[in-house]
TrEMBL record:
Classification via Pfam families: Chitin_synth_2
Enzyme Commission designation: 2.4.1.16
Enzyme class: transferase
Highest taxon of source: Eukaryota
Provenance organism: Thalassiosira weissflogii (Marine diatom)
A Gene Ontology biological process term: chitin biosynthetic process
Membrane protein topology class: Multi-pass membrane protein
Keywords: Glycosyltransferase, Membrane, Transferase, Transmembrane, Transmembrane helix
Protein name (record): chitin synthase
InterPro entries: Chitin_synth (IPR004835), Nucleotide-diphossugar_trans (IPR029044)
Subcellular location(s) per record: Membrane
Stretches that traverse the bilayer: 188-212, 219-240, 246-271
Length: 273
């Protein structure tokens, strides 16, 4: 599956097919999507780190559980039929659920009309709990991202709302691997809660920084350790993968992108849900 505005690296399909051949339990996999027009405007510039973070942090983490929660429609490979002839993507249950035309609730509209790729991923996790959805960082593609705030807000209104409602559906999947707190189900619940409170937590963080700057309070040791780990882990990934240029993209995203992604976009999306 590929989008019209996506440019694929010539070796990407080779890496994807190789990964598929390693195990017949791999139902689908996606590669890394990079920003193709990163220098076009300031809006595209703070998307560079966001895309990197979503793949090398989030999708790589979910892949360790064999449960990538969103295989993007812009660049994904699916196993249609297994080697023994068993239908996978071509399964009648998947088709019957995916091709429904009786959508009448707000929840289902956000599922089926706004995030088709996420909904398909959710259905695959539901019907094939003994298979894996994984991420292949060697398979790379380059996509055109929105270059104005108006187009970005339109895109993210769809993405954020479909993400929220698909996470609700994922909480019903009982076969995610792990035990208690160390499970993919816990990760889904944490993502769901974080999605809901993101604007409020951003306001609180700004208020706390304001109090510290005014000398009225101090950062707790626990908070400093948590932020140190969050930033430190990302810096380690940059160093290990020799991507020192992402230090610039990380700083640019922190200054410019955080207010947009963590406050304005969620509020706009929820208002137009």
């Amino acid at each position: 599956a590929i989008d019209a505005d996506t440019r694929v690296d010539e070796m990407s399909l080779t890496h994807m097919v190789y990964a598929m051949n390693q195990s017949d339990k791999i139902l689908a996999l996606c590669g890394e999507t990079k920003v193709d027009n990163k220098w076009q405007t300031w809006v595209t510039m703070f998307r560079v780190f966001e895309y990197y973070n979503n793949h090398h942090m989030k999708k790589a983490f979910e892949s360790a559980f064999g449960c990538v929660t969103c295989l993007p429609g812009c660049f994904t490979m699916y196993r249609v039929i297994n080697d023994d002839g068993k239908p996978l993507l071509a399964d009648d249950h998947v088709f019957a659920e995916y091709l429904r035309n009786d959508i009448d609730s707000l929840h289902e509209q956000n599922l089926f009309h706004l995030g088709e790729d996420r909904m398909l991923t959710t259905l695959l996790l539901h019907f094939f709990p003994d298979h894996y959805l994984t991420y292949v960082p060697e398979a790379q593609c380059f996509t055109i991202v929105p270059h104005t705030l108006r187009i970005l807000f339109s895109q993210r209104r769809r993405w954020i709302n479909s993400t929220y409602h698909n996470l609700l559906e994922l909480t019903k999947v009982k076969t995610m691997c792990g035990v208690l707190c160390c499970s993919m189900k816990t990760v889904v619940w944490l993502n769901l809660i974080a999605c809901m409170i993101l604007p409020a937590s951003t306001v609180y963080a700004c208020y706390l920084i304001f109090l510290v700057a005014g000398g009225k309070t101090q950062f707790s040791l626990l908070l400093l350790v948590l932020y140190g780990l969050l930033i430190g882990v990302q810096l380690v990934v940059f160093i290990i993968r020799s991507r020192y240029d992402f230090l610039f993209w990380f700083i640019f995203f922190t200054i410019v992108g955080v207010p947009v992604f963590y406050f304005f976009l969620p509020l706009y999306a929820f208002w137009h849900m």
